[in-house]
Design goal:
Structural class: alpha+beta
Radius of gyration: 24 Å
Number of helices: 27
Strand order of the largest sheet: 2-1-6-3-4-5
CATH topology of the largest domain: Aldehyde Ferredoxin Oxidoreductase,  A, domain 1
Number of domains: 4
CATH superfamily of the largest domain: Aldehyde ferredoxin oxidoreductase, N-terminal domain
Mean pLDDT: 87
Helix content: 25-40%
Oligomer: single chain
Length: 665
């Protein structure tokens, strides 16, 4: 097909581990209409995963999909999408996650746009893909290894340039929130994809590729790379360097932990002080102590073709401190407890926590992540004690505590066997035994029947902005992406680090902002289909380097056009995201989700952040969202007319004839 001459490489690998069959699907069955990544992944999920199957059943699929920009010079296009049924919530639903790194590009260099894995191997195995050749190999000698040892062994066997994703002991032991790790550090985060991979006896997927991804207009793509880089960052020696992405300062003064650190100073107001020497000169920076002693050396790195390089890489000279690398939140992940021990933050304890989490294949964004305050609330109630945990509960900043707790979770030892079922299931069971646990459970599970990210500021994303609407319908529930448009009334503000703008705020009106909400949702979908990285600032809605502070939301359409040669305007690209939103919604309708599952619990609407938005206001805003999406406002189900207009007639037919869902006209 001429349209797939550029960008896509043309084949999707399909592996059934039960009968060890290996086949391929033509990418042209799904692209260019669904673009790639999340869009194609959702359609493959619709076709492959029956609604009655459980997340840890062999019938569940692990779907790895790249986008047309993956493996090209497109800025920050190292991400790939993993689609699967999540084992985390009690009601198991379709979910997806978007790790980054170099594995996705390598898969395309090896000749595949994606992989669909189904079934369960009779013994531990791994997939080896080498320039189009695919083998299912025994992993008996790899089973039980941590991620570091796994990757070292596979490098030894297949070469140091091999790109690997795999699971650690947590995934093998079916800890429901276990992650898949690629390139040592990039995790699937929310959803428990590592447990799904472990349930299939699949330890790793190792890839070597020497091919290339053809680009329709190479010079245009090069120009776009530079254009994007100038919107989001600056280099050493330039007047505005460093940008926020190349500084520890965002972690030092991150709002999520400051309120839990008595005496923590306010963020410096001037950028010169805030960004000085990457934050290392700040008196509360714990990292500087290790650097001055020669224990650590720091540098910055990044994912494939990314101009931002937001990864902090540390090399350790101390055998007890693992070297490593991490993005996003690693250096702020243990700040609350570092502050308890040192009155400083962002130091070795945070790096140890991050390294052990990755090595064991645990999720930093679920039960154990973001300080897991619920754990210490249970300590106060006497449910967790030093006797039943075997760790010094009064010194959570120590290596003994961090490593001890994480290993017990990953290997499901003692009371942690129950906790490894995930905080929702664990706290629910505890609340039935201990009434004092019930308020903790209700704060954590603030979204009925649907998994919600544990928010350290008090139990849920309760911002009355368009993000709260997007969050309500998202498959993985975490829709707050800092570079995207977050409207509050008539004013817009990214409210993040040095990108803060002095924009007047007015009491928010969710219903009035619904076109913005649709745009916001479609921008998220576009990021995940092309695929590019929102952590790197794509699409750059705002920029601290332009005179008006405004970036360029249309970069996605420009990149897609340059890569594939299929010209699309920004408006056309946003329209192309509507079928993706509808496929995901129909998946959830098929799996039993209904309108009431889009609501938060009553405690959310009573929080101070919702002072201008009542529960009824939110319901009316959701109904307006349904209407603009072409969904029935009474049920939240996409209308048949909407689905047929977007080429999804078969999905509408199947919803009614196969799954008993009444599809409104």
């Amino acid at each position: 097909m001429d349209e797939l001459k550029y960008g896509w490489v043309g084949k999707i690998l399909k592996v059934d581990l039960t009968d060890r069959t290996i086949t391929t699907l033509p990418t042209s069955d799904y692209a260019p209409d669904l673009i790639g990544g999340r869009g194609i992944g959702a359609m493959l999920y619709w076709e492959e995963v029956p609604p009655e199957c459980k997340a840890l059943d062999p019938e569940n699929a692990l779907i790895f999909m790249t986008g047309p920009a993956t493996g090209t010079l497109a800025p920050s296009a190292g991400r790939f999408c993993v689609s699967f049924k999540t084992p985390v919530p009690e009601k198991e639903f379709y979910c997806m996650s978007l790790p980054s790194g170099h594995w996705g590009p390598e898969l395309k260099f090896a000749g595949y746009d994606g992989i669909v894995v189904k079934g369960k191997a009779s013994e531990p195995v791994y997939l080896y893909i080498n320039d189009g050749q695919v083998e299912i190999r025994s992993a008996r000698y790899l089973w039980g290894m941590t991620l570091t040892n796994l990757m070292l062994q596979l490098y030894k066997q297949h070469g140091p340039k091999t790109r690997i994703l795999g699971i650690g002991p947590a995934g093998e032991n079916l800890c429901r929130e276990a992650v898949i790790i690629s390139d040592h550090e990039h995790a699937t985060g929310l959803g428990g994809a590592g447990a799904v991979m472990g349930s299939k006896n699949l330890k790793a997927i190792a890839v070597n590729g020497t091919g290339a991804v053809k680009v329709a207009r190479p010079q245009e793509l090069i120009d776009l790379w530079w254009y994007f880089s100038r919107l989001v960052t600056r280099k050493p020696g330039e007047e505005d360097y460093p940008s926020m992405h190349r500084s520890l300062c965002d972690g030092l003064y991150h709002g999520a932990h400051i309120r839990f650190c008595p005496g923590h100073p306010e963020r410096p107001q001037d950028d010169e002080t805030y960004f000085k020497n990457m934050g290392l000169d700040d008196p509360i920076c714990l990292m500087n102590d290790a650097i001055n002693k020669g224990i650590l050396k720091l540098k910055w790195g990044g994912c494939y073709a990314c101009p931002v390089n937001c990864a902090l890489t540390w090399q350790s000279s101390d055998i007890d401190i693992p070297s490593g690398s991490g993005q996003c939140n690693e250096w702020m992940s243990w700040a609350t407890y570092e502050w308890q021990g040192y009155k400083k933050v962002c130091g070795i304890p945070a790096l140890q926590f991050s390294s052990y989490m990755d090595d064991l294949g645990l999720s930093i964004t679920n039960t154990l992540g973001y300080h897991f305050f619920w754990f210490f609330e249970l300590v106060k109630l006497g449910i967790f004690t030093e006797e039943n945990t075997g760790v010094p509960l009064d010194k959570p900043w120590t290596d003994e505590f961090i490593k001890g707790i994480l290993e017990k979770f990953a290997y499901r030892k003692g009371i942690f066997d129950q906790a490894a079922e995930g905080h929702e299931r664990f706290l629910k069971n505890l609340s039935e035994q201990y009434p004092a646990v019930k308020p903790i459970y209700e704060r954590v599970v603030n979204h009925p029947g649907y998994h919600v990210h544990w928010e350290v500021l008090g139990g849920g994303f309760n911002m009355p902005s368009p993000g709260s609407i997007v969050h309500a319908v998202e498959p993985r529930t975490w829709a707050f992406r800092p570079s995207h448009l977050i409207m509050i009334g008539a004013g817009a503000s990214p409210q993040r680090g040095a990108e803060r703008r002095n924009v007047p705020r007015v009491p928010p009106s969710l219903k009035a902002n619904m076109p913005t909400t649709i745009l916001r949702h479609n921008l998220d979908l576009n990021s995940d289909c092309i695929t590019y990285c929102s952590w790197a600032g794509m699409p750059p809605t705002f920029s601290k380097y332009t005179s008006d502070g405004i970036g360029d939301q249309s970069v996605g359409a420009k990149v897609f056009s340059a890569v594939t040669g299929i010209n699309m305007s920004h408006d056309e690209m946003m329209e192309a995201m509507n079928p993706v939103a509808n496929i995901e919604r129909c998946i959830h309708m098929r799996e039993g989700r209904r309108k009431e599952d889009d609501l938060y619990n009553d405690a959310t609407y009573a929080s101070p952040a919702w002072a201008h938005t009542s529960k009824q206001d939110f319901i009316e805003a959701m109904e307006e969202y349904y209407t603009l999406r072409g969904w029935d406002p009474e049920t939240g189900i996409p209308r048949r007319s909407t689905l047929e207009k977007q080429g999804l007639k078969k999905i509408a037919d199947d919803l009614e004839s196969k799954y008993g869902v009444t599809v409104p006209a």
